[in-house]
Design a protein that fits this description.
With 266 residues, this protein is of the alpha+beta class. It contains 10 helices and 6 strands, in the order ααββββααααββαααα. The chain is globular.
Length: 266
């Protein structure tokens, strides 16, 4: 039986409120799975977090407002017809290897991802954390290392940083990387609006003193991606584009982009 089918069967059982231990074991679990239901604060959709003895998996209940308990494919989510899905499909961000490569390419200023792609990735990640606040404690009882947005950060995202086309809130971006009027990448990192946005994004970085482990971990991964000596030289150069791009990469690392930051979206 496929993993997807196992998850579907578990979710159907949960919806029916009749979780049967014998059924779970028949599906290949050596211990009883635990379930955590997370709610999208924007539209009421449910994300069901399924934790077995060895792994945490997620699937979704969609269209709750219509009392329709649909089973969503484990490679899909309620976002498939909403914000963020285009960039996930375009760059195949469901692959952890591709996410690692994307971070590396951002640092190296490769043509892909483009500046607009990067701005959309930032939006998708932060929108995920905005709509689905992560629990402070995992089903296992361990502290969840994922960051949590405070109220000031949530207001900053919704009222200042999130950008949309006029009258279209189905997709968005954050203006962190400069784009010219034709939609192509620009090198004008000193543009006032770009400087302002990236200064605001600094408020989402882990604090060097209050969250030292997270601060160091983000920089350690940057050095793994770009090279320790290359990182040192780039920092010493004072190059504005490096400062912006390395800041974006550290943000994406901090907000689980490499691990499971996209599990709530794709």
């Amino acid at each position: 039986m496929s993993l997807k089918r196992i998850l579907q069967n578990i979710l159907v059982t949960l919806i029916a409120s009749s979780v049967n231990v014998k059924q779970q074991r028949a599906h290949g679990f050596s211990s009883t799975p635990s379930f955590t239901i997370m709610t999208n604060t924007r539209n009421g959709d449910k994300a069901v977090v399924v934790t077995t003895h060895s792994k945490t998996l997620r699937c979704y209940v969609h269209n709750e407002r219509n009392n329709n308990n649909d089973i969503i494919d484990t490679q899909q989510s309620p976002f498939d017809k909403e914000e963020g899905h285009r960039i996930i499909q375009k760059l195949n961000l469901s692959s952890q290897f591709n996410r690692w490569k994307v971070l590396q390419n951002i640092l190296e200023e490769e043509e892909s991802p483009s500046g607009q792609d990067i701005n959309e990735i930032l939006y998708v990640i932060f929108k995920s954390f905005y709509d689905y606040p992560r629990p402070k404690v995992l089903p296992s009882g361990d502290r969840n290392p994922s960051p949590t947005l405070n109220e000031d950060q949530r207001n900053l995202l919704m009222n200042t940083l999130f950008r949309y086309e006029e009258d279209d809130k189905t997709s968005g971006w954050i203006d962190a990387i400069p784009i010219d009027e034709t939609g192509n990448d620009s090198m004008d990192y000193d543009r006032d609006d770009i400087v302002e946005v990236n200064a605001l994004l600094e408020k989402f970085q882990p604090d060097r003193e209050e969250d030292e482990d997270a601060f160091k971990s983000c920089w350690d991964l940057v050095m793994e991606l770009y090279g320790r000596e290359a990182t040192r030289m780039a920092e010493q150069s004072g190059d504005r584009s490096w400062k912006v791009r390395s800041g974006i990469v550290r943000l994406l690392i901090h907000y689980d982009f490499l691990n499971d930051g996209l599990d709530f979206i794709s």
